[in-house]
Amino acid sequence: MSEQPTSSTPTKASPNKRDTLRRIAEAARGEFVSKGLADARVEDIAQAAGVTKQLVYHYFRSKEELFACVLDQTSAEAMSELVSLELAGLPPREALRALLLQMVQPYHDGLLGSLAQEGVRFHESRATPRNSFMELAPRLRDKMKETIVRGIASGDFRADVDPDMALALAALATTGAWVNRYTVSTLCDVDVARAADADAWRSFSVEFVLSALEYERSSQHSLVRSAAPLSAPGSA
Question: Residues in domain HTH tetR-type (predicted)?
């Protein structure tokens, strides 16, 4: 007998319903990652989740609504990891590096990487309802601001920094090779589908953001892919 909610169903989802929704979301994520929004089929999602197509449409009015749910859940997982980072015990520079590395990690691991470009197109063409990412954003802004303020006080970071703009730029820089994969691949021959390139972009982008905030530029970490620094024109 298929699961059918009734008018007496309580507001809080029953364990069976929560499990069903979880299976649908997991199956949908797999389909969207492998096929994209346009080519993913609700029939295949239902089959992978072990439910009927009708039940999928009972919980989600459209494939697009299901995709929005998957995006929300996936980004919420990534944001939860970010805002839960314990940075207060780290020196400011290392605290910021830890935050930046965690920012890019879900893309590097594939959690968000395969959905990134689909998500950008989806949000650009639709009004985005309030979601977990938006709800957690203020906590992430506070964490970034606290880290920068500590760095300014310690002399590690320059004082003329807007924390919110620095956070937005850091997000764009670290995740850009996944979100704008074609552009990055064309301009610098870095394709994050290749593990070595993904590692190179993660390292470069994190150090690039840090170098923009440092009061005195550290030469400990290079901003070039090769071991030797670039030479100025005409130099030996």
Answer: 18-78
